[in-house]
Specification:
Blueprint (H helix, E strand, L loop, with lengths): L1 E2 L10 H4 L3 H4 L3 E5 L4 E3 L7 E7 L2 E6 L5 E7 L2 E3 L12 E4 L3 E7 H10 L1 H26 L3 H12 L4 E3 L4 H8 L3 H13 L3 E4 L2 E4 L3
Antiparallel strand pairs: 1-2, 2-9, 3-8, 4-7, 4-9, 5-6, 5-8, 10-12, 11-12
């Protein structure tokens, strides 16, 4: 369902602070129920999407039919590589009720080409995503569940403190682990005094 533009809800970020009015005036705000597709694999990209609230996941199936999670976004642009692609290489599905800003791709491209400040902000946005992807690749190359959990705490936490914004089952998928393996690892690390766990907060022990 398409609803009127909600500029009052837009994030207070550099991406929007420098966004040209031509792009702001073209945006639409859309509501997606849990399980709804924003787009499907193979479709021709015609929009750029920004998750305002809720959660959207980029998913693809392996040759054996297993679900592969490529990206999980609760706030920010998704599928940025689609701007130069002829078709989507994955599905985008709302994991819960979500509000998404939808920008016409042709207008978005024009804003990047014609506005230096917005182009610089977009490059910075892409750079952050590359750093995140590199950290994810490094993490998945680690052999043990313990190493992956501690790596996530170090790279995604702040001052040794991680506030989970997803369920532990979803986190396990992001770590490339079964949820049983993640639970066992967290329990053991807490018993060994390496981490402290309270609800959705996990932090490195100061001992």
């Amino acid at each position: 369902m398409t609803t009127p533009d909600r500029t009052s809800e837009w994030p207070d970020s550099a991406d929007f602070a420098v966004m040209p009015n031509s792009l702001k005036s073209a945006v639409k705000s859309r509501e997606f129920a849990s399980g709804d597709h924003l787009f499907r694999i193979g479709a021709n990209p015609v929009s750029m999407f920004y998750v305002l609230s809720g959660e959207v996941r980029l998913l693809r199936s392996s040759v054996k039919g297993a679900e592969i999670s490529l990206q999980r976004t609760r706030r920010g642009f998704i599928a940025k590589a689609s701007m130069d692609a002829s078709s989507y290489h994955c599905d985008a599905i709302a994991a819960e009720r979500s509000t998404v800003l939808q920008f016409p791709l042709t207008v978005f491209r024009g804003a990047i080409e014609g506005d230096a400040a917005f182009r610089s902000a977009w490059i910075s946005c892409l750079s952050r995503e590359v750093r995140t992807a590199l950290a994810q690749c490094e993490r998945l190359s680690l052999k043990s569940a313990t190493a992956r959990v501690l790596h996530f705490l170090e790279t995604e936490g702040e001052n040794g403190i991680l506030i989970l914004t997803q369920t532990r089952k979803v986190w396990a998928t992001e770590l490339g682990l079964s949820h049983e393996a993640l639970y066992r690892t967290l329990t053991r690390l807490e018993k060994e005094g390496i981490i402290l766990v309270k609800d959705n907060i996990i932090c490195m022990s100061r001992r």
